[in-house]
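Just curious. Invent one:
>
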Amino acid sequence: MKYINNKIVVLLLAISLFATSCDSFLEEENYTSLSIETAQTDPEAFDQLVARVYEISREFTTHYTSDMYYQLEDLGTDIVTRGSLVTGTNDLNDYVNFNSTNWTVSVYWTDQYAIISAANIAIDNADDIEGVDTNAKATGIGEAKFFRAMSYFNLVENFGGVPLVLNQVTTAEINYVRATEEEVYTQIVQDLKDALSAVSDNPAEYGRVSKDAVRHLLSKVLLTRGYKPFAATTDFSEAASLAETVISNHTLVASFENLVSIDNQRNSEVVFAYLFGNNPVSRGWGNSKHMMYKFRSYDYPGLSRTVQGLGPMPTPFYFSLFEDDDQRAAATFKRVLYADEEFTATVNGETVTVTAGDTAMYFPKVAWTDAQKAAVPYRVVNPDSYIKSDGVTPVHYPLFRKFDDPDVPFTQPDQSSQGERDMVMMRSGEAYLIAAEAYLGQSNATKAAEYLTDLRNRAGIETTVTADEVTLDFILDERARELAGEVNRWMDLKRTGKLIERTLMHNPHAKFNNALQEKHLLRPIPQTEIDNSGGSITQNPNYS
């Protein structure tokens, strides 16, 4: 499949129009308005249908609505809150007035089913397209099933049981009924087992789904199902085994700093990533993660406007999690912001000039006294002032650098995402945590401690984790330090039964409003879906 460049195909299949963007070595071909009859005689048509699944899966994580995707993944948790004063409310973060008309939830539902639709089209038309190599066909179907499973996993964890649509829709239909959560999980596992037998161990093209990508997702699915009333007795053990295989094939990068370096994106630890690059055609909307967890630092003296933030901010609790010798802190966020332009400040009644390259803003881990703060020409923000209207902006906190993309220019009045970095979706660092949690689920805390020790050693923490230390909270703290901004924190907390407890304890805005309750363990079904189905799709309990 020519996947990473600028190859465009538009296929008219049944009653739907689909646009596909793929690329390989700058080859370009354009097909427009092909009928299904014409497409059936073109062996490349199947390749393009599979490429379409990749494309929309990537684009739906990072297009203009990417802010809301990140919100559904981490906003309203223990480690990410809204970037505003504690007063007021926000339905997604504070769980106040959260209902079926929420636009973010509606678009998320629609986008997941768009991915499922594209996968179904590729699967259902595979046998009708002439001249497709048998192995290529099997691989493509496996890749499509991988993405279908991933979308259903997102849907079932966010909404509970949802309609299972497993074939291309060719006629108008409104009578969709929600399958049970157990039935959806059964389908997800079956799709992933099919994909595991079909895709390659080592795909020829970087960025395509491998067996380890399937193993990684399946391990997470089984780990999650292991907590459910309908769990299989082998879920935790199989999740651990799959994660261990991923670990054995993807060695940890020696240092966390090197792991997240933009100069070392395609390293041994990466299991699956969406690719972007600097080609404006194939890049699409671009990777927007470089915009995450940034406040309006450019409103402060000496700091110019170089990047626009997306809105949500890490909680003060998140920043407090890192031990002094944990190298992940410095690699993930920066406590010192250096001036990129000259400015003046007053120190002890005297005007001093701060030049470019000197400190403009500092976020100490341990609070400074007023006297210490008054003795320096730069702004010092203590941990208890991250959410406080005592500065130019209502919130100010250490800026994330983990996803920085310095070659992406800021354009006014708006900054499109346009990031060029690969977006790493799966890496073996998480596999260590999946294995640890799965072993804890089997009451084998000793084995869990071994994986946690290995991961922490990579971060520069040389102490050994003991079995007595291993709890779900210990693992969740470790996931926060290792994976913030990379994986779905909301689903992690829900899986472990910790969403309500930890969010109300550590999210200042949610704690202030105190509205989070059991019903919020599922999102509301979008009202538009209920209406469009004529009521055959029913609402989750206690939502309007």
